[in-house]
Amino acid sequence: MSSYPISIEVSGPLAMFARPDTGVTPTSYPVPTWSAAKGILESIAALERGAAIHPIRIEICRRKGEAGGEVHFQKYATNYGGPLRKRGQFNSGSSFQFFATVLADVCYRIHAEVRRSGSSPDRNPPHHLQELFNRRLAQGRCHQTPALGWKEFTCSYWGAFRESEYEVDTALDLLVPSMLVGMWSNASHGKYQPRFAQNVSVERGVLSFAE
Amino acid sequence: MPEFFNRGTGLLIIEVRCSNPNGDPDQESEPRTLSTDGRGLISPVSFKRKLRDLVEDADGPVARKAFNLSAITLADGVSYRILESRGRDRESIGKLNPDAFKAAFWDARVFGNTFLESMKDDGKDTKGKGKKDSRDHFISTGVVQFGPGLSVAPVEIERLTTTNKSGVEDGKDRGMAPLAWRVVQHGVYAMPFFVNPMAARKTGCSPHDIELLKFLIPHAYRATASAIRPFVEIRHAWFAEHGDPLGSCPDYLIIDALTPRKVGGRADAPSRSIEEYQVPDALPDGVRSRVKSFEDLCLKSWA
To answer: Among A48, A118, B180, B260, which residue's Cβ finds the most Cβ atoms within 10 Å?
Structure first.
């Protein structure tokens, strides 16, 4: 069976891959979730049916020459004065303050496979999607502006690997006791069914997603 | 059906002198910085708020001038109200049908909205056939995304205590705010923004809405200056229109080419003036040829 790999490098000053257990004061996982990685790739290209993107692994990168071995967290608070505030805040004219803990100065290389998904009249949808993705990446085209979790955390770079500037952070080892995989039962057209993985490890800068 | 328009990539070059461009509510309004390297930060939320305030002040000089421009005049029935506003009545907005909602709020068309986030948990709103689909317009990704504004070099923060001769507390005839005046001595920030027309169909965003955004950007700080923010100046508001709705040039090529570089003093030391930076004033030919148009919104003349 043929394999249709795709990959992308993304970086940015801020990122948020929220832990669901942190509620209204969201805190980011130290690394992107499977579904966040999938979302980044699908912002470049996706098909309605016939093929779906499956992230395989993420390489956490550092600028060449830097020590690495760390994930940087950043406090990030914003004021909200819109109509979704609680009635008490609304009536008193108070702002809602939204406190979050995000990641700072991140760079990831995301590796994925395009796999067949459901039926399609096309002869080879995975090949079609792989070609579409690679063509758009080279041209700088996208369906949605790629973002690092929250939409406002736009990428400072998205494209092919920058081998001369960045390298995998081999000094980074982490263990995440429990981590969200995704909110749906399948990679496409799934039902609402949050899935978690336990004891997720980042070894020598590489996070591999279990199948 | 919204009119067709192309993808856009923009970059704001913002100079800050003895001002607080964006206070951190979690740090007693200290100017925001990245804890990793001390670079200054302006949140996208903060910048969008200033644009919303300018539009909401419909009788103010900026909005009045904008609304008289032919490039910005909207179709009949479409208005420039602001959704993210203190005075809005959530219940009446929740009753709007998709067309009325899209026609009402400029910021919802341009920046998207998450109005449904709370409504969907409201049992009475989710009952009834077809209700869910009819409320789909209450959650949408925006056409325009502003990214974090980051200073090119670390910033140095000055803290001063201010006094108030008349006093502000009960029983006091004078006041003092210890170390409350907190400003960035000098900094040059770069804030990217992106126009993605693929989201316009859902939000109802038109080219007129984007033209209004482009008109407002140079006024964002100048027309909202305050005691703590006397000099935050957008030196350049670069905007490149791609040759295609999906884009015709990688965003990073545009952004990297236009981001200032610190050439005076140490790169990791705070600056004292803009003379310490090399500020690009054009796109390289190889990048320029890949976009349809390129302009500095600060210099654009509006008929």
So the answer is: B260
